[in-house]
Batch of 3 targets.
Target 1
Amino acid sequence: MRLKTWGLALSIMVATPAMALETNVFAATTSSVSLQHLEAEHPAMQQQLSYGSQGHWVMTLQADLAVLGYSQVGPMDGIFGPKTTAGVKAFQIAENLPVTGVVDPITWQDILSGFGLAPAYTPGGGAPSATASSINPQVIDGRPVIATYHMIATAYGPSLQNNYPYGPVDAFGQPLEPGMIAVDPSVIPLKSTVYVQGYQNNNLPSGGFVGQAMDTGGAIQGDRIDIYMDASPSVVSDFGIQPVTVYVLGQ
């Protein structure tokens, strides 16, 4: 049985011989592979996880960290909460990574490294590393990126059910339009142009969208945004809670 590289700890517990075989094959080629190659080879590296994320990738993350000795990650329940955040930060501290609590490609790379499935991330070294173009773009839509935030997103719509008590207008009485988001102005200034990506929703532009931070909300504080969707209450509710990356753009 060939070990699937994205199975990680859940498969490693029952497939050690296959892991050893794949590790030997991979070790022979790591000197020339790029970050993009690693992301294609290991789907886990394409999953950016943060507080509020849910699902089988979170469960995989929790299992991997537990096997690597980070018991503070808590149970394998598929919910990225305070305990999982603590486990991720402890791992990032131990690996000399940026301590963000967000599982980005370089964090995944070092997790994979712990199982012999990828080279360890080395800033400025010979191992594959995160590049500005793939992890932290410098320019989007012809505008410079002036700030990057890993945040939690919800959605709201034009109905009173989704946007009480304002309905089809924002907190300032202006009509809601696609591309508008609600923000905490102490984090992202109002009227900022932003690029939002990382969500999974067929009713929003695929891959991401350029929008405007034009609205606020009582529950939108800190690392949270609310994305306006011109859709029915049921479609808006289906968005749920998702991790996103928000790039604040300059002129």
Note: The chain has seven helices and seven strands.
Target 2
Amino acid sequence: MRKLVRVCSVILFLLIFQLNFVDAKKINIRKYNNIRVYIDGQVSIDTQINGASQDYNNVVVDISDISVEIEDNNQKKIYTNFNEQTQQGSVVKKYYKDVDPFSEDAILTVNGKIKSEELNLNVTFSKMYLVEDLLTIIDSIINYDGCNIRITSEEVKNIITYDVVFKTEEGGKFSDGLEYIEHVNIISGEKYPNIPEVISNQNYKFLGWYDEETGLKINEFPSKVTKDLTAVAKWKLIEQEENLDTIETVAIASSDDKNIIVLDNNNLQALDSYTPPRTAVDNNMTLLIVFFIISSTVTIGLGCKILRQD
């Protein structure tokens, strides 16, 4: 019985603590007045094609022009000129800045530049964070008045490299028989990968390359890699296309619109040799023409006979 009472007491204590913690968070009394940004500049880049390593780089990139935008209570402020506090010999850059107090509901956006002469690299970056996601349990316990932002080496690599993937839908295949071609960790600004050759299956027609994300046709690939892209080869079945283009119905009506002859695409060729039935008007016209010819012949004959008698 005593054990049950103890268990219930512990559960009740935790419940009260949780409720008080939630209420305190809603009140949002706590404010933060400084920001520390840590960026690991030691980057390892393994460029691959379908999992096979093509090139490997292990470099220390240069980080500069750090600024942070703070959005809190529908107000935005941008802080620049961060103080660099990097320890000598460390590849992890450390930046510090005192700022106006902001709450846990704030949104922080870190901006900066990454350069490397070895990689011929010069790019800008922007990363957004929610303050509540940055705070650790230790920060909550010791009531720390600052906010730490850590950008890891892997995140830096993802900022300066991109992936280019080629895929094909049913209707065609790559000339080397692969199901897809995936270029991973291409350094920003490098030459664009060669566009693979695709072969159409029987009765299929190649429509072109399309951006998988947007669904738009890619009329021309760029010369340099500046973003992630998945290009999909699309095809159309020729037989279906031809059937849709040729199936039609032609109606031929008689003069009284009562008798209708319907021809489909199976006998459209017969239209060239089709002769409509003769009507009563057609027959009367024929009789008039014949009568005119006979009358003209008789008149000419009588005229010739009179001239001979004279």
Note: DSSP finds six helices and 18 strands in the chain.
Target 3
Amino acid sequence: MKTEKKLLIVSVLCFLLILPVWIKCTEDKTSFTFAHISDPHMFAAGSSTDEQGNNSTQRLSYLVNKLNTRNLDFTILTGDFASVDGNNTAEWDNFNETISELNTIKYFCKGNHDGIDNDYFYEYTGQNTTYYFDVNNIRFLVIGNEETFLVSGTCGINITKVQAEYIKDAIEGQDNIWLVAHYPEKVSASSYWNDVTLIEDLKSKLIGWSSGHEHNGRAISNSSGYIEDQPRSPTLYSNDNTSILVWSEISVTPTSINVTQYDAYTNKIIDTAVYSVDLSYPSAFPCVELIVGSIIATVSLLLIFAIVSHRNKSHKI
């Protein structure tokens, strides 16, 4: 086989070798969409019904079916999956059976009704109370309830020493944190959090905070310098507006975060907001080092092959 043909074959093979690298590195890495729901407060069987005649199970099922029609990368669920103290396994069974129909990756956060003196949250979700997961260059930090305490007559989260150390390690070196927690920052002038200093350190890195707990609370806000997303929950407590069934859809691009809250019953937009952000990677071209390295490796292989071929040809002469 002539040297030119051999070089051509090697060149094609090298090109095919680095092609997947080019494709992976040039694709959009920071655009994704996720859903946020909170506070279903499942009952073991039945419950009061909303204005559409649906009980808590039917409401969550309706919401799940609606989310399954969307193009979502994952769903975050910010707590209070059970009711009262979270010690009723029938409530957990009901929740687990209903939420299992949701066809996305699911990330759960423990709420104040999800048990303090039992392991049902872990047993039914398979997730820890505090953990994080990374999506592109955003770190989603989930902080659930280990212990609760009372502040001005309301519940709150008492961050344990173990949790505090985990949180400090999780946010170190991270610039874009999205907090996932059952509790928002505060209600009125009272904080829901016992470790205010830690929360202040955390807030300096936040681009978003998704929470629940306040069933008719805030919707979308950016007043604190980061996005607060708190959909009015699908629970059926008597103080709720049971004529609507609200969930949030958050779309993230390198330059913006779009938060929209929908009523699942009517598809009506309850609230919406777009915020400008800079989520670009540190280098102007992600994976540039990998691509340059691949090109250098390819050229090196071609040169080695050319040298070997030349030597073989010289020996034949």
Note: The first strand starts at residue 32 and ends at 37.
